[in-house]
Queue: 4 jobs
Job 1
Amino acid sequence: MIQRTPFADAFTYVLMVLGFLLLIGPFIVILAGASQTLQQVNSVPFQFVPQDRLLENAAAAWSRASLATALTNSLIMASLVTFGKVVLSACTAFAIVFFRTPLKHFFFWMVFITLMLPLEVRVVPTYAVAADLFHPFRLLIAALTGIEVSVEWNLLNSYAGLSLPLIATATGTFLYRQFFMTLPDELAEAARMDGSGPVRFFFDMLLPLSRTNMLALTTIMFVYGWNQYLWPLLMITDPSYKTTMMSLVALLPSENGTPDWNVTLAGSLIIMAPPLIVVAVLQRWFIRGLVATEK
Amino acid sequence: MDKHSVFKSWWLPILFALPQIALILLFFYWPAVAVMQWAFTLEPPFGGAAEFVGWANFQDVFADPFYWNSVVVSLIFSLCGTVFTIVVGLVLALAVERQLPGSGLFRFLYILPYAIAGPAAGMAFRFILSPERGLMASVNAIFPDFWNPAKYGSHALVLVIIIFAWKWAGYTFIFLLAGLQSVPRALTEAAAMDGAGPIRRAVDIQIPMLAPTLFFLLVIMMTEGFVGADTFGIVHNTTGGGPNHGTEVMVFRIVDEAFKGLNYSGASAQSIVLIGLIMVFTFIQFRFIEKRVHYK
């Protein structure tokens, strides 16, 4: 047992409470403001005590920013991104770890490099690809056969457009790869002895064993998908596809209108809630996944 | 990486890897190549073939004083954001690692801001740190104009840095706590037996042992500050780059140039410079800082 002194312990508590005020304090201010009346929220000095108007303010925000549509779309987008990543990365990691093929190093590096270049710096050409998905194929066909094909397909204003480009990086692959590498060789050998092929082994043994990884990746990817801002902003012009991040603008009090920050804060609380709940509930796996993917 | 390799089929791995490889080719490599190409060509605004112009786009970019402004803003943003997140994360990790009663609850709470999107946090902080209401109104009542991010670019920059640091401090905290937990207890206990207090132990044993984690976080957070999704989101939703270009970070300028100015070539040239800059940073960090890092 490490020696304890009352002074050091008290100092530690002071630090932890300061950390609490810094990191959780803003949530308390948001909650207090979101549950006050227009007069209360604008009063100086600010009252930190939550009042009883939360539901009224939330209802006002709900209709002002049409949050029903936005929440549905964000939920669909975040789920597609999560599902896509969890499934595709498991498949790729399986191919990289369990097969003797010259292509595995090629796959590995191809996937690895994607970690270097975030969407934000290649957003302009990615947008161009999404707006005209067949462009690369048209060029390829023209180069190979000399035939000019005039097929066009754009992903703007679609769930595919919202999610596919975000699935196209390697975050999850490494989480699975690291886990697969820790499994004993005998596991796959035994499966082979029993006469089960690779596909059977993947579904019946690997996937059930990877449950922890999947939960970890699910949390990380749900937060990532839900919090996307720039990409939906570019992809979506049709209001029926707008996501929660886009409805933030509608929640702001207008320049010269009433400063109804209570409604704004109630709305942002609704938008913040889903990823917050996911992280709070799945925190143990979330942390395991974070530390494992990044290192 | 050849530890396993038990199955011999040649087509099955291709089939399994194909969906992800196809997506990456289409939405990663193709756009990455296009950025390089556009940076050296000029797309005529009314269609037609692109013209190769060599380094002209880069010359235009470097001749623009607003571009250099965005470089400086990005540097300040990224540097301050990195320092704040790492210092706060480190102090809290050292405190929580002492495992006093209640530490577990604080650990649970500190991570929560990570779940919040930068723009959503920005929106809330516009209220929390507004000059007219919320917390700063009382200060402004005593010292008029002490804090006004809508008027002063420097105040706005402080505002976006605070939001960034708030969101990411819990993230560095996770890594530093994980790092601290892997410091052998025998070491700290021996030091305690020799009479070293908690601060002495932190400075002489725990922080040096954390060097690899600190180094890793330095690289990650600098990159996050420069090109991260939150950097753009916070700036775009909180200050819109203003006032007076005071918060115009490099990613913001790239998106603005491309989608508002419709200058794809200029935006691509800026993207290339940004990618180059990140590579230089990472290199410098590995070259000069890694030497002072002690791996076990």
Note: The beta strands of chain B are 41-42, 51-52.
Job 2
Amino acid sequence: MRYAETGYNLEIDLSRGNIEKVATDPKETELYLGGLGTNAKLIWDRVPPEVEPFSPDNLLIFGAGLLCGTPATGCNRTIVSTISPQTRLLAFSMMGGFWAPELKYAGYDKVVLRGKSPDLVYIWIHDDKVEIRDASHLRGKGAIETAELIKQELNQPKAQVAAIGMAGENRVYYASIEQGRSSASRGGIGAVMGDKGVKAIVVRGTRDLNIARPEEFLGLCNEVLDYIKYREEHPIPGVMPILAGLGSPQEMKVHDEKWHTENFMWGNSRERRKGFWTDEIAKEWTETMEKARTRLISCFNCPMKCGATISMPGLPTYMMKCFTKLTYTMGAFSDLDFGLRIAQKATEYGVDGFSAPQVMAFAIELLENGILSKDDFPGMPEDNEGRFFYLLDMIVRREGIGDLLANGTYWAAKEIGNGAEEFAHNNIKKTEQLPLKLSMLNPIYFLMYSTGEKINITQIEGQFPQAPFPTREAREEFVKDWIQVPDDRFKQYFVDWELRGENSMPFYPTVEMCCDIVDWQERMHYIDDALGQCAGLSSFPLKPPYHIHNYPKFISAGAGIEMDEEKLTAAAKRYRTLVRAINIRRGMRRKDEKPPANHWKKRFPELEEQLLDAYYKLKGWNRDGIPTAESLRELGLDYVSEDFIQRGILGDDEAADPTANQQAATAQ
Amino acid sequence: MTSKKKTIKNIKIDVDKCNGCRACEVICSSFHAMPKYSSNNPARSRIRVIHDPLRDIYVPVYAGEYAVAECAGRDKYVIDGKEYDECAFCRAACPSREEFKEPDSGLPLKCDMCEGEDEPLCVKWCLVDALTYEEREEEVVVEEEDTPDEIEIGLETLINKHGLDKLLDTVEQLAKDKS
């Protein structure tokens, strides 16, 4: 019997309309865990680098995390993986909500889509019954609207629906997949779903999911719940409110937006507004939020209330979480009322809340600087908010200039030319980032921005405080109950970290320490992404309930795979390296690993080179960021090095087995 | 008829506090698995969150006695501007709706307040306090009537679903097969 996972994937060939239930190999789970890990293995095995994002040969995989559907609190994420039209690299965006557990209860760990449907369809999975159904009547419908219509049509109020809106149908490069209160937004995976002709995947499951060692597993879950309660009563002192508690940042609950609005850049990631947050604004925004918000809500089996139901007067209700609350507002230099209204439309259209507002602000900037002209925006309203609504419509419909803007600032600027590229200035690997620009280089963030395969800063940070605490006493206090550290040396790094003086940024933490910190933070995120655990209870906040010391126990007791910290660390490293290998095979190199050029005012090029060199070395990558044959062999990824050598990515000499050489030398 | 003290066990439900996470369903189905906690399947849960997020309806309901399909409670209620079907409040395991029936057999499920535990586990797992456990002593008049046991409840459901004749035929058939 398989535990925690079902042992079956659903393989759907949309070109032929063929549906298969395929048993998976438990050995693969042991090596790659599940979720992102096994998704990456499938992509490596079946999507060679020649395959374009919009090719029928590109796979679109919806993977439930290994522990989704078990009672593990907050474990509910669907990891969607494909080749991104935006970056041409692997995208592995994730969504919380209710979809992944439902898929497990239906009896599957993944839905693997290949081919392309000639007509718009949706997929209906009800336990053993799986159908591809006509969706032509849903063309152009909003993502939330679609979910409601399908549930009515099937008379299945309990079904969970992951759907795309018009942006996905029209292959907007930053189209998202929406699922009730959550969305998989980054990397344009909604565009791939649209390209495959799939409007929605609908799931309803009523099957059992087994646990290997039940009592032990429940004991662990109860420990986590107790710890969550403890942390609710003991927020971390000395850090800003969004970092003091657990969950993803409680943007729907928090009214004080001084930090975000005054530290993040407005418009096309251009302007910082010091002194913006006045009493008047605070009062106005609080009222807007209080009126709009009907309830704070959660994802499956999670007590954190990171999301909210939002009802703006005259607009259909939708659900929101986290930072989209501010992105449109700040992109347009407007207020929260506008932000919540346009986000309703954007959610129905299904676009990424980071990229969409920045692309729109970029278009306005090009117009204001004469690179685009009024003729490029026929019929555009005069008022600021009206212009943003107009641009959103043009983009998701790919009409006029919207057709270029739908490809994101990087590709749009290339096409527009005439100096437009100077304005696409907030990208990493061709994707718009959070508009956060600061004064001096932060070496930890430099590494995360540059080398993060997820290409999204908020998806790697966590665990280690973002800045030193002002006094040594406060730091010593912080490390006292810091049980989450993999090793006590991290406590010392933090205790010695000063705001000013010798032990301050950018030369402290030292290069070696920075690599160590980033490696730990990244490891935790990769473990979450395989288990389907929300980062909000694990890799993202300080002192979370899940960590490297209890995760192996969860995997052992839940999935019945004997696990310890070392083995888990090795597994995470294995599929992390595999994710990189996929991107390396698609051409990614050191030259691509850099934050936006003007992210920090004060840069330290020499230090940055040292950081990259040292991090690559720690990871077992060569100077160009390519995993070496030796490190691949250590991870049991010989098939990757063979492929690299065959393609000339690694030289022949790098394949040589050093132990064999040594033996030969000794023999002589 | 006699009178005696009885402990009334109740789960108080505050729908305003429900965050819709369904942790109650998760732990309920896990607790009632055989062996305990060995599997999870909210479709077997004896508590269900009836929810319709876009209309802001979140109503946790736990399974009570069995009711026949002809139940007259089909009214609509409007509370705080939201419309509820009366079924949303009813604890009955009833043949006309999906909740509180075993997914494979269709047999009714009933809340047992997690017998043997200090409090029902759904209450323990509801960290947002939408569920609270109440226990009170009450003087009750006990009618001298046997409460139906599980087999009876099950049989009654089957009779309601398939008719008595069909059920008798099946039993006869099964008896023949076994002999």
Note: Residues 149-178 of chain B form one domain.
Job 3
Amino acid sequence: MTAEIVFNEPITEWGWKVGVYVALIGIAGGAYLAGYAADVVSYRRGSAGHGAIAKWAYLVGLGGLVIGPPILLSHLATPLRAMLIPLTMTNLGSWMTIGAYMLGGLGIGSTLMFLWLAFGTERPHARAAGRESAVADGGRDVASDGGPARAATGDRTVGGFRGVADRVGLLGAVDSVADVTRPSEKTRLLLGALFGVFAAGVLLYSAMAYGEGSAQRVALWEKTFLVPVQIFSGLGVGLVTALALAAVFDRTPGAVLRTYATAAVGLLGATALALAATVVLLPGQRPAATAGVENLLGTHALAFVGVSVVLGLLVPVALLVAAVLGERRGSLSETAVVSSYVTAAALATVGKVTLAITYLMAAEFAPMPLPV
Amino acid sequence: MSTQESSGPARVVPNWESCIDCGACEVACQRTWNLPPESDRIKVVAMAHGTEDETNKPMQCYNCSEAPCVEVCPTEALFFRDDGTVRVSGDMCIGCHYCGVGCPFGAPQYPDAEVPEAAESEPVGARGNGLMDKCTTCEPRQEHDLEPACASECPTDALLYGTPDELSEKLAEDGVSTPFNDEAARIVFGDDADAVMGEGP
Ligand code: SF4
Ligand code: SF4
């Protein structure tokens, strides 16, 4: 005869904070990688438009790291002890340890890459003020670089991060630091690739935080299915968020952003397919996951199907497709296109966070059959 | 009697056929170590919940030979002692609950009770402050040749204590099995799993 033990469910161990953390670091890793790809394209083609995506994507990566890890720390019993990473995180066989080091590397990488692209009089991909860049970037080049950069972009003074640095009186200093530390373009991109390894590690960790080998007693988190979900969603949400920021602050949707919007459609669509594969195929491959999948489609259907899949993936895909087609045909105003990008990014971010929390709430420990 | 020389570490393993759900083991553990009320180093848990076979049996840390908790702990707060048992260091734990998700037996506890300088006041566990705490197989009692308090006070001998060799002997004597399936036995007993499990009815 077999029986089940009723223990605490994973959500009672980890709570919503771990879900938010896992979602945000996934977005950070994905945004960095998307930004690096844009950075390389920008270098090769000499296009400021691609460079703008890179800059905003690095900033999104930085933002995810600034918000996510502190949320995790607040979940721990001894946050200060946990922050002494080289002294505490010593078990290199644990994904939490691997993740901590990856996050550290990505934090340094995002900061430097953003600094080098966004600050300094010699910053790469900077647009010259008043210069039309319609050919390369598919749009009029105004208010570029997120704020005033008088040496490189003329005397326009607008908002954005450069504007913020200017208002607090740090712009000159940060620009100097950026110019002094920035290596040659080739070396910068080489370093960027190295930091990209950390970003890829963080993206993988955003899956393995749940799906680590020994945590396999939670069948819903089977990594064969979870890893693609986390990789596609991290890249997709990271990219669409950078795209939205570039559209808002550069106010020039254009051909380059359409390319990235199309890429984001592919990534968000791939996420939806990976989730569909999970609910359809996982129970057949791991019968113990049946309860978790039923929870996703039953008890937590509103969060999973409603928010994560429909609002967080399908609606953003529809908005992006409509924006791309509408702009190309000239039937949508710039404002409508930018609004579509922003709404898609906001919904995709909410969907990603909800997905991570729902995966925690729906999870059940695999029952251990016991003779009684 | 010291049992440390035999093939594997001495553990407490339940013989569920004998358990009458009296809760004496929980009381013995709490009283012996003056634990905070919410600490369950041994806990009588519900099994076959909601079925006509529903029953309540004791579960605690089995000091697994292939302990998943040790594998996932990022800080090495969980570690194997030389005798093969698993311990937690209150000085190194960060309270991440990774072990709580990794342990197949629900053994890790994270009592919130304020226990100032918990590590110093209880060197073989963490006890409170949100850090991981678990059964220590009553290590200080063993130093005085005493069995763990739960096994010693169980009125029906439903908690067996011994090395894998001794456990298989006791189980064979009583004509009963461990509560573990093959996968669980491999995690708990490692290479000794076949020897222990082979002696069941
Ligand atoms: S029972 Fe759980 S806490 Fe104890 S050693 Fe095994 S895995 Fe670790
Ligand atoms: S709660 Fe403590 S003992 Fe458990 S895995 Fe985290 S650091 Fe290790």
Note: Residues 129-144, 147-158 of chain A have pLDDT under 50 and may be disordered.
Job 4
Amino acid sequence: MDIIACIKVVPEEQDIVTLPNNELSFDKVQWKIGQYDLNAMEAGKQLAKKTGGKMKVLTIGGDALSKTKIRKDILSRGADELNIVVTDKKLSDSLITAKAIAEALKEMGSFDLLLFGTGSSDIYSQQTGNQVGALLDLPVLNEVNAIEECEAGLKVERMLENEVEILELPVPAVLSVTSEINTPTIPGMRDIMAAGKKPVNELSADISSISEYSEVVSDLAPVQRDRQQKIVKGEPEEMVEALIQFLNS
Amino acid sequence: MARRRSIIFRAPESGIIEDNARVIADLLQAQAPELVLLSNSTRGRLLAGKLGAYLDTCVISGISELNEETTRRMVYGGAAFRTQKLTAKTAVVTCSAGIFEVSDGQASPDAAVETMSAADTRIRKVETQAKEGVSSNIAMAKKVVDMGRGFKEEKDVEMCRELASLLGAELGCSRPVAENNGWLPKSVYIGVTGIILKPELIIALCVSGQVQHMVGINQAKKIVAINKDERAPIFNSCDLGLVGDIYQILPLLIEKLK
């Protein structure tokens, strides 16, 4: 089964600095593979191995994708090939991203399955996979917690809030996986060495004419509510007494 | 007031309701509403994404606030709230539980009800299984006991549950407790990718206070924290903080409350 995992390189949250005016500074951020995309790549790797296929990775983003380090990191996680669209276009809306992916896929040839994580770990709209599926008119599902090949194509387990659905669907298809579907493997030395030899294709997809559908007004750190910050240390009895008084006040 | 009309979509026995998206999109196209609201559930999100693509418009998901022209939602793992202006003609928005006051939920009496079904049938439902774990009303609860990763073993859940029941509270947890330990169902984990709460009281047990979790509890009226590490960031954002061993404090507290 030929699989394409679509992933996003995102800023490391811990490097984002809150400025005194509550705006965010990204000046010192390192870039990393989105946390939930690791699950998508792991699921793709496992399914490709089981079904005797290949997994390619597609990613679209800014300058961060030009760095060898991040490219190697992606390739060390089981991808056979990395496809990149480097753009200065702000992909601030999931539909823009979905359209850009659909455009890039035209250059990548046929596939049986597109895989996404449950959401990007920066914006977390949880929509890109759903929208790519709709744009390509393919069967699409989110929150998929298990995938196996079957006669009809794929048999999947999908997590709803109160129940689990077992569904069958034909390929090609588009699935977004949960963060519990697997535990991503940490690449070993051999994977890292091999990553350097794998092909990286820079695609020429033209996404400049895709229009915006919303406008980001501001990204501001949440204002902290004033708290009493009464701290009690000492014997457990005293602390429990203070707590009960607090609950009754 | 606009004409009220209710249309009920039914999924065929062997399909899923989201596969009605094309028909729903056609109806919306004809009506051209400014806003399409859906729940931020698994089904709601899939339906929203498909509608957004078919209507060629933006989807803003998991919003925590909705105003005349703008929405607010959390981004960057809780580090910021994004205010976004909807410039498209029809905006599709999914809302998390608990952001609107609950009304009595009665349908308007003069609504005309029609039933429709025209599903895309490529996805076939084989079966539905019950999910393990109890259902919870945590998003609507007035009081919440919040179990953090500092507990040692699974049976400690019982202690937390007992405290919750004595206080008339619901039991929730931080992400590692649900996802890594699997001690509580994922549906009750609190934080940026889980539930965002707005209760009267939260008692945070062994919660360190990472930003991704704090955004889920920060809107509580009162926060009580119990943690043995006095440098834990939670102590900067609580109303009452007890610095001590949960295994001494909790049994004693339960005893007293009884």
Note: Helices of chain A lie at 35-51, 68-75, 94-105, 128-135, 189-195, 236-248.
